[in-house]
Amino acid sequence: MATLYKNRNIWYITVSNGNNRLTRSLRTKDKKVAKQLMPSIELELLLQLSGVKQPSKNLSFDELIKCYLKADHNWSKRTKELNEYVFRSYQSGKSLYDKT
Question: Which of 6, 45, 91, 99 is least surrounded by CB atoms within 10 angstroms?
């Protein structure tokens, strides 16, 4: 069973299963929006509590860049090269523009 509550004008949902409980912010101040979001978030939290679905892990920026560049964006060869250059430059601390 899920519970909807408000804390500092933001709506939250909490779901419990046995002795385990998960809470997630719905990131809204509007109760109507919170009620619309509640069913899908409740299902997601119940799946996590039951062990069916693993929570998404937080990736470091470097890992995120690798995943982003590996994904199929249907880019041209030149666009892919440009994006790889920009991210490599950013990671190495190289300036992306001329400061003169």
Answer: 99
The per-residue pLDDT for 98 is 63
Contact 41, 26 (CB under 8 A): yes
Can you list the residues of the chain whose pLDDT is less than 70? 55-56, 96, 98-100
C-alpha distances out from residue 94 to 8, 46, 56, 61, 98, Å: 42, 45, 31, 16, 10
Alpha-carbon span 74 to 64, nearest angstrom: 18
Residue ranges per domain, the chain? 2-50, 61-92
Where are any strands of DSSP class E within 1-100?
2-7, 10-17, 20-25
